[in-house]
Specification:
With 327 residues, the protein is α/β, with parallel strands linked by helices. It folds into 2 domains: 168 residues, FAD/NAD(P)-binding domain; 137 residues, D-Amino Acid Oxidase, subunit A, domain 2 (D-Amino Acid Oxidase, Chain A, domain 2). 29% of the residues lie in helices and 23% in strands. The strands form 4 sheets. Strands 4-5-3-10-11-12-9-13 form an 8-stranded mixed beta sheet, with helices on both faces. Strands 8-15-14-16 form a 4-stranded mixed beta sheet. The chain is globular.
Length: 327
C-alpha cells in the first residue's frame, strides 16, 4: 500500500525475489500525493550522520549498493560541504560529527566545482555519496517494478486484502489512522533553472541559523532546500521561507540571482519521535514508516529487511518491532 519511494522499492525487491506483488495507490495519478516527489533525493549517509542516529548511516550505506545495482542513472559524484569565511567553524563542527570525508582547499574545490572556487577556501568532500533526480527515479522504479511482475493499480481508495496475503503498509503520513505516534515534518523547496552555473554534486552550505543544500538535476535545474518545520500542512512556502531559500542560493553563488524559478512547494515527511524508521509487525500486516527526510536514502535497505523477514524470519532488532501498541 502506497507507491511512494518506500512502496516502490518494497515492491521491486519482493518481485525480484519471487513474490507475487500487487502495488496499490490511492492517487489516480502516480506520485501526485507522494511526499517523495518533493525530495532532494541525496544519497548521503555520511553527511546525514551529523544529526541522525547511527542506524540511518548503516541503512544508507547499504542502500547505496542497491541504488547502484538497480538504478544505473544514480550519480555517484560525492557531496561537497562548504561554509563562508565567517562561518568556517561550522566546517570543523560538521567534520567532528561525520566521517567518510576529507578536507579540500580552494584548488581542489576549483577542480570539483569550478563555479564555487571564488566563494570558498575550504570544504569537506564526501566522495562516496550520490544523488538522483526524483522526477526521473520514481517513474523508472515503477517501470522496473512492473517489468519484474508487479501489478500496479492507481486510484484505489478501498482495499480489502485476501485473508492469506501479507499487506505491507507504506502509506507514509496516511498511516496516522493506525500509527498514533507518527507525525509530519514539513520540508520546503525551490526548483530553479539556470544554464550559467554547473554543479556536479549536491552542495551543502553550512550556516548557524539557516543551512542550505542545493542538488543539481537534469536540464539545468537545481533543487534548493533547507527547511525542517514541525508542521503537517503542505501549503506553498511563505514569503519568509522563500526569501531564505533563494538568498542562500544567491550566497552560494551570486549568479543564482539570475535563475528562473520553476517551482515553490512543500512536502510533509512521516517521522517517529526519534526520526528513525521502523518496520512494525502486526499479524498479516507490516508497516514500513517513519523514514523522515531519509526516504530515498533508506528505502532500498528497508525493503531488503522486509524481504528477509518474509523469506527466512530474520529480524533486524534495531528496526523491526512486534508491538504495534507503542506506535
Amino acid at each position: 500500500m502506497g507507491a511512494g519511494i518506500t512502496g516502490l522499492w518494497q515492491s521491486l525487491i519482493l518481485a525480484q525475489n519471487g513474490y507475487s506483488v500487487r502495488l496499490i495507490e490511492r492517487s489516480p495519478k502516480p506520485f501526485a500525493q507522494a511526499s517523495s516527489i518533493y525530495a532532494g533525493a541525496m544519497l548521503a549517509p555520511y553527511c546525514e550522520a551529523e544529526t541522525a542516529l547511527p542506524v540511518v548511516k548503516k541503512l544508507g550505506i547499504k542502500s547505496l549498493e542497491l541504488w547502484r545495482k538497480h538504478f544505473p542513472e544514480t550519480v555517484f559524484n560525492g557531496s561537497l560541504v562548504v561554509a563562508h569565511d565567517r562561518d568556517k567553524g561550522e566546517i570543523d563542527r560538521f567534520a567532528r560529527f561525520t566521517d567518510g570525508h576529507r578536507y579540500v582547499d580552494r584548488k581542489e574545490i576549483s577542480n570539483l566545482e569550478p563555479d564555487l572556487s571564488e566563494q570558498f577556501q575550504e570544504a569537506l568532500f564526501y566522495e562516496n555519496e550520490g544523488h538522483v533526480d526524483p522526477e526521473v527515479a520514481l517513474p523508472r522504479l515503477l517501470e522496473a517494478a512492473e517489468q519484474a511482475g508487479v501489478s500496479a493499480e492507481f486510484g484505489v481508495e478501498d482495499f480489502a486484502p485476501p485473508a492469506a496475503s501479507v499487506t505491507i503498509d507504506c502509506r507514509g503520513l496516511a498511516a496516522q489512522d493506525v500509527l498514533q505516534t507518527l507525525r509530519g515534518v514539513r520540508g520546503e523547496r525551490a526548483i530553479i533553472r539556470i544554464s550559467e552555473i554547473e554543479l556536479a554534486r549536491p552542495v551543502r552550505l553550512l550556516h548557524p541559523r539557516f543551512p542550505l543544500y542545493i542538488v543539481p538535476w537534469s536540464e539545468n535545474r537545481f533543487m534548493v532546500g533547507a527547511t525542517v518545520i514541525e508542521r503537517e500542512d503542505a501549503h506553498p512556502p511563505s514569503v519568509r521561507s522563500t526569501l531564505e531559500l533563494l538568498s542562500s542560493a544567491y550566497a552560494l553563488n551570486p549568479a543564482f540571482g539570475e535563475a528562473e524559478i520553476l517551482d515553490l512547494s512543500a512536502g510533509v515527511r512521516p517521522a517517529f519521535e526519534d526520526n528513525c524508521p521502523r518496520i512494525i509487525l502486526d499479524n498479516q500486516r507490516i508497516y514500513v514508516n517513519g523514514l523522515y527526510r531519509h526516504g530515498f536514502l533508506m528505502a532500498p535497505a528497508l525493503a531488503t529487511l522486509v524481504e528477509r523477514y518474509l523469506t527466512s524470519g530474520e529480524k533486524d532488532s534495531e528496526i523491526i518491532v512486534e508491538d504495534r501498541s507503542q506506535w
